Amino acid sequence: MRRVSLMAVAIGGVVDVGGTSLAGIPVVIYVMATSNIVTLPSVQQTVAVMTYIKTHVAVYAVLAALGALCSVAGGYVSALIARRAELLNGALSSWLCLASGIWTLASGKEQMPMWLFLLLLPLSPLLAALGGYFRLVQIRTRSSESVGAA
After folding, report:
1. pLDDT at residue 150 above 70?
2. What is the reported pTM?
3. Residue 2, pLDDT score
4. By C-alpha distance, which of 28, 19, 1 is closest to 96?
5. Considering Cα of 105, then 71, then 77, then 126, what sign does the dihedral take?
6. What digits encode the pLDDT tens for the residues 11-61?
7. Residue 76 burial (CB count, 10 A)
8. What contacts 89, CB < 8 A, 6 or more positions away?
9. Contacts of 63 (CB under 8 A, 6+ apart)
10. What are the boundaries of each domain within the chain?
11. Angle between helical axes of 42-55 and 57-82 (0-180°, round to 10)
Protein backbone atom coordinates (compact mmCIF):
# COMPACT_ATOMS: atom_id res chain seq x y z
CA MET A 1 0.00 0.00 0.00
CA ARG A 2 3.02 2.28 0.34
CA ARG A 3 3.09 2.62 -3.44
CA VAL A 4 -0.25 4.43 -3.42
CA SER A 5 -0.45 8.04 -2.33
CA LEU A 6 -3.99 8.62 -1.12
CA MET A 7 -3.58 12.38 -1.22
CA ALA A 8 -2.28 12.26 -4.81
CA VAL A 9 -5.10 9.95 -5.90
CA ALA A 10 -7.71 12.16 -4.22
CA ILE A 11 -6.36 15.34 -5.81
CA GLY A 12 -6.07 13.64 -9.21
CA GLY A 13 -9.72 12.59 -8.94
CA VAL A 14 -10.79 16.14 -8.20
CA VAL A 15 -8.73 17.42 -11.15
CA ASP A 16 -10.45 14.85 -13.40
CA VAL A 17 -14.06 15.46 -12.40
CA GLY A 18 -13.71 19.13 -11.48
CA GLY A 19 -11.80 19.88 -14.65
CA THR A 20 -14.39 18.09 -16.76
CA SER A 21 -17.18 20.08 -15.14
CA LEU A 22 -15.38 23.40 -15.57
CA ALA A 23 -14.35 22.62 -19.16
CA GLY A 24 -17.96 21.82 -20.04
CA ILE A 25 -19.32 25.18 -18.90
CA PRO A 26 -18.36 27.09 -22.08
CA VAL A 27 -19.92 24.33 -24.19
CA VAL A 28 -23.19 24.54 -22.25
CA ILE A 29 -23.16 28.33 -22.54
CA TYR A 30 -22.64 27.98 -26.30
CA VAL A 31 -25.53 25.51 -26.55
CA MET A 32 -27.83 27.78 -24.57
CA ALA A 33 -26.88 30.87 -26.56
CA THR A 34 -27.17 29.32 -30.02
CA SER A 35 -30.37 27.34 -29.50
CA ASN A 36 -32.56 29.91 -27.70
CA ILE A 37 -32.77 27.69 -24.64
CA VAL A 38 -32.41 30.76 -22.42
CA THR A 39 -35.91 31.80 -23.51
CA LEU A 40 -37.38 28.67 -21.90
CA PRO A 41 -38.51 28.60 -18.27
CA SER A 42 -35.58 27.70 -16.01
CA VAL A 43 -37.20 24.38 -15.07
CA GLN A 44 -37.04 23.23 -18.71
CA GLN A 45 -33.56 24.52 -19.55
CA THR A 46 -31.56 21.57 -18.18
CA VAL A 47 -33.65 19.03 -20.06
CA ALA A 48 -33.39 21.12 -23.23
CA VAL A 49 -29.59 21.38 -22.94
CA MET A 50 -29.25 17.60 -22.40
CA THR A 51 -31.54 16.90 -25.36
CA TYR A 52 -29.53 19.26 -27.56
CA ILE A 53 -26.25 17.61 -26.56
CA LYS A 54 -27.61 14.12 -27.18
CA THR A 55 -28.86 15.03 -30.65
CA HIS A 56 -25.77 16.93 -31.81
CA VAL A 57 -22.86 14.55 -32.21
CA ALA A 58 -20.25 17.30 -32.61
CA VAL A 59 -21.17 18.91 -29.28
CA TYR A 60 -21.22 15.50 -27.59
CA ALA A 61 -17.80 14.69 -29.10
CA VAL A 62 -16.34 17.98 -27.82
CA LEU A 63 -17.60 17.24 -24.31
CA ALA A 64 -16.22 13.68 -24.50
CA ALA A 65 -12.83 14.97 -25.68
CA LEU A 66 -12.72 17.51 -22.85
CA GLY A 67 -13.57 14.79 -20.35
CA ALA A 68 -10.85 12.53 -21.77
CA LEU A 69 -8.25 15.30 -21.54
CA CYS A 70 -9.25 15.98 -17.95
CA SER A 71 -8.88 12.28 -17.10
CA VAL A 72 -5.36 12.32 -18.56
CA ALA A 73 -4.61 15.52 -16.61
CA GLY A 74 -5.93 13.98 -13.39
CA GLY A 75 -3.67 10.97 -13.86
CA TYR A 76 -0.69 13.19 -14.58
CA VAL A 77 -1.32 15.33 -11.49
CA SER A 78 -1.74 12.24 -9.34
CA ALA A 79 1.54 10.77 -10.60
CA LEU A 80 3.30 14.13 -10.18
CA ILE A 81 2.21 14.45 -6.55
CA ALA A 82 2.77 10.77 -5.67
CA ARG A 83 6.36 10.69 -6.98
CA ARG A 84 6.16 6.88 -7.14
CA ALA A 85 4.29 4.17 -9.00
CA GLU A 86 3.20 6.72 -11.58
CA LEU A 87 1.00 4.37 -13.63
CA LEU A 88 -0.76 3.00 -10.55
CA ASN A 89 -1.38 6.38 -8.93
CA GLY A 90 -2.42 7.80 -12.28
CA ALA A 91 -4.95 5.03 -12.90
CA LEU A 92 -6.33 5.24 -9.37
CA SER A 93 -7.01 8.94 -9.83
CA SER A 94 -10.07 7.93 -11.87
CA TRP A 95 -11.80 6.83 -8.64
CA LEU A 96 -14.13 9.81 -8.50
CA CYS A 97 -15.09 9.50 -12.15
CA LEU A 98 -15.76 5.76 -11.73
CA ALA A 99 -17.71 6.29 -8.51
CA SER A 100 -19.80 8.97 -10.18
CA GLY A 101 -20.43 6.72 -13.16
CA ILE A 102 -21.43 3.76 -11.00
CA TRP A 103 -23.73 5.96 -8.92
CA THR A 104 -25.31 7.33 -12.10
CA LEU A 105 -25.81 3.81 -13.40
CA ALA A 106 -27.28 2.58 -10.12
CA SER A 107 -29.65 5.54 -9.84
CA GLY A 108 -30.85 5.13 -13.44
CA LYS A 109 -29.85 8.66 -14.40
CA GLU A 110 -27.39 7.84 -17.19
CA GLN A 111 -27.69 10.20 -20.13
CA MET A 112 -26.62 7.76 -22.85
CA PRO A 113 -27.49 4.27 -24.04
CA MET A 114 -26.49 1.59 -21.52
CA TRP A 115 -24.15 -0.21 -23.96
CA LEU A 116 -22.21 2.99 -24.62
CA PHE A 117 -22.08 3.85 -20.94
CA LEU A 118 -20.66 0.41 -20.08
CA LEU A 119 -18.19 0.65 -22.95
CA LEU A 120 -16.88 4.06 -21.89
CA LEU A 121 -16.72 3.49 -18.12
CA PRO A 122 -13.43 1.49 -18.23
CA LEU A 123 -11.91 4.18 -20.44
CA SER A 124 -11.51 6.51 -17.48
CA PRO A 125 -8.81 4.50 -15.64
CA LEU A 126 -7.03 3.85 -18.95
CA LEU A 127 -6.90 7.57 -19.75
CA ALA A 128 -5.83 8.40 -16.20
CA ALA A 129 -3.07 5.77 -16.44
CA LEU A 130 -2.00 7.46 -19.68
CA GLY A 131 -1.53 10.66 -17.69
CA GLY A 132 0.62 8.72 -15.22
CA TYR A 133 2.56 7.30 -18.17
CA PHE A 134 3.21 10.80 -19.51
CA ARG A 135 4.66 11.74 -16.13
CA LEU A 136 6.81 8.59 -16.13
CA VAL A 137 8.15 9.42 -19.59
CA GLN A 138 8.91 12.94 -18.42
CA ILE A 139 10.87 11.59 -15.45
CA ARG A 140 12.81 9.13 -17.61
CA THR A 141 13.62 11.81 -20.17
CA ARG A 142 14.95 14.13 -17.50
CA SER A 143 17.00 11.28 -15.98
CA SER A 144 18.57 10.37 -19.31
CA GLU A 145 19.32 14.03 -20.06
CA SER A 146 21.06 14.51 -16.73
CA VAL A 147 23.12 11.33 -17.23
CA GLY A 148 24.09 12.48 -20.73
CA ALA A 149 25.13 15.91 -19.45
CA ALA A 150 27.41 14.49 -16.78
Report:
1. no
2. 0.89
3. 87
4. 19
5. positive
6. 999 999 999 999 999 999 999 989 989 889 988 998 899 899 989 999 999
7. 24
8. 3, 4, 5, 8, 9, 12, 75, 78, 79, 81, 82, 132
9. 24, 27, 53
10. 6-144
11. 90
